[in-house]
């Protein structure tokens, strides 16, 4: 054979195929009329596994052979090509195994209390008497301790601490100081992503005491909490949740200090949509009252709801069985296409195309199955909780704190509410379908005073199955409720 060029010899890892030498070689063989790429073994060609098979298939198509000297294979036959592909997969497997071993080793070291990698500021890397790598306090350690003390005793901001440290000759960004104050390594502990949430006692010398570290950490936590707290103004729970009807932008809030009254206001410049906060809260609770149910209705509603959900569930069992059958078919197709790709019957492009198509279909069906399943074991708890909630709607909202209010609002009206300044009306577009169902049942119970078992089961079940239409509740002088389905 005539040799046209030599490639490699650098220290590039064959784990991925974006190696410079590898790419240079590929470009070279595609330009010149090359018949063979000769390697010592397939893992010298690539250890990228599946993607290497893909690359190899491409160069085979333009008539180039991969010759692995220590793993001879007749690549003119399908068996020979399969063997070579298999070797490529094994190279990747071998690589993965090595990686697993490394991780086990690293974890072991961490569990024994040894820091991994470059020493954090205030420490330096060295070796102990048994020649094991370890970190020891550096000449900057005393300054780091000072920083902790300033933080704990004087509650200085990180920017001020950074300034002071610079005067002492240590330049550090304040963002990095935040990391320093959070790193348990300074009080003699080890924490690492490989240890998950476990924290171990380190072999290194602490720079600060655990008490000092906790004191600083307490200050940091309080700071984080405070800034969040400011955003969550207890007086403006409907902020952002309410949108301006005219321009659809979310409402923010402000305080008129003279009167000590809060207002909601549209963000858009020039849009004059604003509203006294207490008034808007009243309008919102008026809407909640529409969903309030009488305590006397709890027992009958519970029975009725169980019927309804169970009816809904049985009509879905057929659906689920059908979906599972199609899912099986798609999984078989995925397996088939993989097989054909591995043995070289189809190329990478075609494989990608079909694999993507099938996987998309698979996801769609899985979601559909999820949607159609109802966890009946939780049904009782679910119904009880919802009914209890429905008896106390506006109290729950009035008495909750900011976060509880927000959660509750979102649960009731996932799309939020809108405020129409011109008509001074609050509108809801879509209510939680479960609440909507309970309300419709409660209305029909009130109508049906005869106490006979009604036929709601048959009426309501199709309602859920086809999904609820958006319900518009409009609060103007008189209250009109438009329900888009029969109760
Ligand atoms: Zn507006």
Please supply descriptive tags for the structure shown above.
single chain; about 475 residues; alpha+beta; Rossmann fold; Hect, E3 ligase catalytic domain fold; 4 domains; 5-stranded mixed sheet; about 55% helix; about 10% strand; binds zinc ion; DNA strand exchange activity
Question: Looking across the biggest beta sheet, what order are the strands in?
Answer: 7-11-12-13-14
- Whole-number tally of structural domains: 4
Portion of residues in beta strands equals 5-15%
The secondary-structure class comes to alpha+beta
**Average pLDDT rating:** 79
> What does the radius of gyration come to?
34 Å
Distance between the termini: 86 Å
Give me the oligomer status.
single chain
Which compounds are bound in this model? Answer: zinc ion
Number of strands: 14
Gross morphology: extended
The biggest beta sheet reads:
5 strands, mixed
Which residues sit in consecutive blocks of at least 5 with pLDDT less than 50? 226-230, 450-487
**How do the helices and strands follow one another from N- to C-terminus?**
HEHHEHEEHHHEEHEEEEHHHHHHEEHHEE
> What's the total helix number?
16
Q: How helix-rich are the residues, as a percent range?
A: 40-55%
Domain Recombinase: 120-226
Organism: Kordia algicida OT-1
InterPro entries: DNA_bind_recomb_sf (IPR038109), DNA_bind_recombinase_dom (IPR011109), Resolv_N (IPR006119), Resolvase-like_N_sf (IPR036162), SSR_resolvase (IPR050639)
Protein name: Putative bacteriophage resolvase/recombinase
């Amino acid at each position: 054979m005539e040799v046209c060029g030599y490639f490699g010899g650098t220290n590039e890892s064959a784990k991925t195929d974006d190696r410079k030498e590898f790419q240079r070689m590929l470009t070279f063989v595609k330009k010149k009329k090359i018949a063979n790429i000769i390697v010592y073994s397939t893992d010298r060609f690539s250890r990228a596994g599946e993607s290497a098979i893909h690359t190899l298939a491409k160069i085979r198509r333009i008539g180039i052979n991969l010759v692995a000297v220590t793993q001879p294979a007749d690549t003119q036959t399908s068996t020979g090509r399969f063997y070579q592909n298999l070797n490529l997969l094994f190279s990747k497997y071998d690589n993965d195994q090595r990686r697993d071993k490394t991780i086990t080793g690293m974890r072991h070291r961490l569990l024994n209390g040894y820091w991994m990698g470059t020493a954090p500021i205030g420490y330096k890397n060295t070796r102990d008497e048994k020649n094991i790598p370890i970190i020891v306090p550096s000449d900057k350690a005393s300054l780091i301790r000072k920083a902790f003390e300033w933080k704990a005793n004087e509650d200085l901001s990180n920017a001020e601490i950074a300034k002071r440290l610079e005067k002492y000759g240590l330049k550090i960004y304040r963002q990095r100081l935040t990391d320093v104050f959070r790193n348990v390594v300074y009080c003699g502990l080890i924490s690492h992503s490989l240890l998950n949430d476990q924290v171990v006692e380190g072999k290194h010398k602490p720079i600060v005491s655990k008490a000092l570290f906790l004191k600083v950490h307490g200050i940091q936590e309080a700071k984080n909490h405070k800034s969040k707290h400011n955003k969550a103004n207890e007086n403006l729970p409907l902020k952002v949740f309410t949108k301006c009807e005219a321009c659809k932008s979310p409402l923010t809030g402000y305080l008129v200090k003279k009167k000590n009254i809060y207002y909601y206001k549209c963000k858009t410049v020039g849009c004059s949509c604003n509203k006294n906060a207490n008034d808007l809260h009243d309008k919102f609770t008026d809407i909640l009252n529409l969903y309030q149910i009488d305590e006397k209705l709890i027992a009958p509603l519970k029975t009725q709801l169980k019927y309804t959900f169970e009816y809904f569930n049985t009509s879905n069992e057929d659906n689920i069985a059908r979906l599972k059958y199609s899912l099986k078919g798609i999984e078989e197709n995925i397996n088939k296409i993989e097989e054909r790709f591995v043995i070289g019957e189809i190329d990478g492009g075609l494989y990608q195309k079909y694999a993507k198509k099938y996987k998309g279909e698979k996801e769609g069906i899985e979601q559909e199955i999820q949607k159609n399943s109802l966890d009946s074991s939780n049904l009782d708890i679910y119904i009880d909780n919802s009914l209890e909630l429905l008896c106390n709607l506006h109290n729950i909202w009035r008495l909750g704190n900011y976060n509880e209010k927000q959660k509750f609002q979102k649960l009731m009206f996932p799309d939020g509410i809108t405020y129409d300044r011109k008509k001074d009306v609050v509108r809801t577009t879509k209510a939680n379908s479960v609440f909507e169902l309970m309300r419709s049942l409660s209305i029909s119970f009130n109508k049906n005073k005869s106490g006979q078992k009604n036929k709601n089961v048959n009426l309501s079940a199709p309602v859920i199955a086809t999904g609820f239409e958006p319900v518009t509740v409009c609060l103007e002088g008189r209250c009109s409720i438009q329900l888009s389905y029969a109760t």
